[in-house]
């Protein structure tokens, strides 16, 4: 995608004509070098824009980086705002690009990753709901129950009992080994 179009689509600069002027006046650099408006933006490029005394620097990312960041850090991420700051892009750009490629917004994807982690922890009786909520990034057990029921259709307790493995039944000895008294 052309640099001027990327600056407009990512909403770093409001209009494409303004992005063209900024590139012509060498206020936009890509990887430390002044860039023309026709420059083809690639994943991994670092774009710096000088707005008077303030300079904004962003990195062009692939959605795969956002997915990896969510999967690695779902328990500590507060939301999409924090994720966009961590990746160095605007929230609106991240949401738009993520939804375009993945089909769901990043907030929904993060919730799905957290729910899968909750299901894994529910299979063991080792943790109570408060502990599971803390380990998976939910603010509390009440909120965890609300989101879990909305996404899965069952409460965590009902899901735990339905998904729990059946208790092992002791095997009966073969009839030839029976003893009569």
Fold blueprint:
Elements: H1 3-9, H2 16-24, E1 28-30, E2 33-34, E3 46-51, E4 54-59, H3 63-73, H4 80-87, H5 91-102, H6 106-122, H7 129-136, H8 141-152, H9 156-163
Antiparallel strand pairs: 1-2, 1-3, 3-4
Number of strands: 4
Helical coverage, percent range:
40-55%
Number of helices: 9
Largest sheet: 4 strands, antiparallel
Q: Helix and strand succession?
A: HHEEEEHHHHHHH
Strand content: 5-15%
Poorly predicted segments: none
The whole-number mean of residue pLDDT values reads 86
Classify the secondary structure makeup into a structural class. alpha+beta
Label the overall shape: elongated
Gap between N and C termini, in Å?
A: 88 Å
Quick structural gist:
The protein is of the alpha+beta class. The chain has helices at residues 3-9, 16-24, 63-73, 80-87, 91-102, 106-122, 129-136, 141-152, 156-163; strands at residues 28-30, 33-34, 46-51, 54-59. The N and C termini lie far apart (88 Å).
Describe what you observe in this structure.
The chain is an alpha+beta fold and 181 residues long. It has helices at 3-9, 16-24, 63-73, 80-87, 91-102, 106-122, 129-136, 141-152, 156-163; strands at residues 28-30, 33-34, 46-51, 54-59. A four-stranded antiparallel sheet has the order 2-1-3-4. A hairpin with a 2-residue loop joins β3 and β4 (54-59). α1 (3-9) crosses α2 (16-24), α3 packs parallel to α6 (106-122) and α7 packs across α8.
